[in-house]
Amino acid sequence: MLTVKLVVQATQGITRLPLSLEFTGVTTDSRAVKPGELFVALKGEKFDGHAYCAKAIALGAAGVLVEKAEGLPQDKTILVADTLKAYQAISHAWRMSSPHVKVVAITGSNGKTSTKDLIAATLASKYKVIKTEANFNNEIGLPKTLLTITPDTQIAVVEMGMRGFGQIRALKALAEPDTVVITNVGETHMELLGSMENIAKAKSEILENLTKKNDAIINGDDFYVSKMHTGANTTTYGIISSSAVKASDVEVTGVGTTFTYTSKVTGKTQYVDMPLIGRHNVMNALAAIAVAELYGVEDEAIAASLHQAVMTEKRQEILHFGKITAINDAYNASPASMQTACNTLEKVVAAQGKGRALAVLSDMLELGTTSRDAHTRVGGYVAQAGVKELITYGSEAKAISEAAGAQGVKVHHVADKEAAAKLLKSIMQPDDVILFKGSHSMSVDKVIDLVFKGEEE
After folding, report:
1. Which of 174, 379, 387, 425 is 20 to 30 Å from the Cα of 31, by its Cα?
2. How far apart are CA 140 and CA 28, in angstroms?
3. Is 31 helix (H, G, I), strand (E, B) or coil?
């Protein structure tokens, strides 16, 4: 159990709480405190959890982890030098207190969350699995996931994001994964890291100091990932490369994707039919297959899990509003994921056999000096996908409209998401398929709400 003693040992904290006291959990949200929990007072640029410690205690918190204890009951506080570092230390200690739990960690520029969802789904057919919720993959989100490990947990599937050098290394030190997965290297975070080589170097930190006690699952089709080295047992996956786990006979329809693979374990050919569209989702599934086989999940169970897969929302969600289909891929955006989304749009329209392809796109952020070129390339992807009308908003996305317009697409660049919604309402027709995508802070999903609120079937 999570005791005061474990917390104090992990954080070198000072407290008058009895060392034998057991916390029922740990939270950083004062609004969600449950009786018996430890409340951690984190600080940010716009908030300070210390202001809510009294509220947390009133709601039943058994203790509060703080950097300053003035005005608080001394028999409720654990005083530390840095609450974030202490929170991370507690999560690491908690993970290490359950040595029977295997940790699978995923990183990459694109597809982390989808791959995490598929890995968790396949493993859950045999094991008690927890996973990163949503995309809580940073220095606060990862500890949150690790602290949900319970006595019956067998595998934890965690996602690791990064914005610069050293961050994956730090997250890996918290989770101490048994198995790591690298999906790909793309232009995301180019603004901070400056080159694809630097992005690859930052991602490869997850492979550092691994031994034959560990396993690494890497994308054999990705130029940068396939060249990475590690001391772990390595399994490659892919579609075009000579990978250990390889898909063939890939067929993409408007409602899903089918493929076959040959089991590394049994040598048998397994057919997979999953409700996810696109070759990129085949790659995500292959990573899941590689992990599942490593952990002894049978072929049929893997295929059944992929057939029933449910993804984290806003990642190529297919939504139906009367006779109009929306592809909600608005959680985030990079040049590679924009290309993939445009390909998906084209496939859905072709499978439907009628209607037009429309798109509402906004800025891709954190691309630095490559931004204009990247947005221009997306305009080309839009044209290649057969988009009939394109709506863009955001200062960077103007280049998408300019490039797509130059290739014959009817384009509209508007001021904001409200203007995009108003225009879309006026131009959409029955049987249209509409793609919605942009970086998270551009809130392209809000356009869906403004246009279709209350209409989903």
Report:
1. 174
2. 9
3. helix
- Classify 352 as helix, strand or coil: helix
Q: How far apart are CA 157 and CA 145, in angstroms?
A: 9
Q: Which H or E run contains 320?
A: strand 317-321
CA–centroid distance for 158 within its chain: 9
- Chain length of the chain: 457
Tens digit of each residue's pLDDT (9 = 90 or more) over 320-331: 999 999 999 998
Q: Are 253 and 245 in contact (CB under 8 A)?
A: no
Please give the helix or strand (H or E) that residue 452 lies within, else none: helix 445-452
Residue 286: both structure tokens together? 């292959």
Rounded-to-integer distance, Cα 257 and Cα 13, Å: 52
How many Cβ atoms sit within 10 Å of the Cβ of residue 125?
Answer: 16
Residue type, 201: K
Q: Tell how strand 38-40 and strand 63-66 pair up.
A: parallel
Q: 424: which 2 tokens?
A: 């879309």
Please report which helix (H) or strand (E) contains residue 102, including its range. strand 102-107
Hey, CA dihedral for 33, 39, 44, 46, is it positive or negative?
Answer: positive
How far apart CA 113 and CA 131 sit, in angstroms, is: 10
In contact, 258 and 86? CB cutoff 8 Å:
no
* Whole-prediction pTM: 0.84
Q: In what order do the strands lie in the sheet with 357-362?
A: 317-321, 324-328, 433-437, 357-362, 387-393, 410-414
3 state DSSP class of 170: helix
Q: Are 346 and 386 in contact (CB under 8 A)?
A: yes
Closest CA to 101 of 269, 295, 237, 248: 295
Closest residue by Cα to residue 287 from 255, 245, 242, 232 = 245
